[in-house]
């Protein structure tokens, strides 16, 4: 503690106040002390701190499916930052059950977690209302909060991502472009990306064909079925925007079953940039989400809230990127 105080230019008492999250410390002084602790890799005795202040240094993570590779990438970033700042994490898997979501929040309260990182497949106004009333600090990952709700979140611009994916297919000369989306009640990953898709084809003066928009569920099996419906239409598409990489791979599998070659006969673009995207044959053109960085930024925001630090942004939109690989080609 002496070295931290010396480097920060403050007293040992001030360092102690920062560690104990005292409101008596000015925000600028708190930042100096935290900077010094990070510089010196200083970690206080967490057991003693818990006995003294009843702080658990525990962060809860609630997610719908721990087997999903998207969430695995996000978890990597969460654990990286949590470890750096001396926090433990506990994982709650809801298996897409809203009842289990609420029970998970109650469990984390009982276990005296200091904050929650929340990932869910659907976020409506009712859920946001009880999140705002929840007593623990919470940050939402991969969902954008609208309607003036003040809940912190980290996400990408899904409308722009859907637009960029579709616009790239248009740039290759395709005009018969279909989309396999996620569930229509998923406002972010589905409806926002659909909005981007519609915006891109509208700007290109391509008439919207409702037969080209299929509601999926992010799974290989459903995508394989839906692509066969698309490719057996009287006027089938020449390109498909898939709402996720798993959806895209399922669509490729279904197209191959019908004798189509990808990308010679059909271009397919995905969304996420999961690890499998660069190993599948053909390798997958996709919109890359910064999944690990989402986890990092959300955890940093949550710890800043818990430790009463200065916070510049509570609602963060991270950039995405188009990754061009082998599954798309010029229209012929």
TrEMBL record:
Entry annotated with the keyword Zinc-finger: no
Pfam annotation, one family: LacI
SUPFAM superfamilies xrefs: lambda repressor-like DNA-binding domains, Periplasmic binding protein-like I
Molecular-function GO terms, alphabetical: DNA-binding transcription factor activity; transcription cis-regulatory region binding
UniProt KW keywords: DNA-binding, Repressor, Transcription, Transcription regulation
The keyword Transcription is annotated on this UniProt entry: yes
All residue ranges annotated as the HTH lacI-type domain in the record: 1-53
CDD domains registered for this protein in UniProt: HTH_LacI, PBP1_CcpA-like
Gene3D superfamilies documented for this protein: 3.40.50.2300, lambda repressor-like DNA-binding domains
Protein name: HTH lacI-type domain-containing protein
Organism: Anoxybacter fermentans
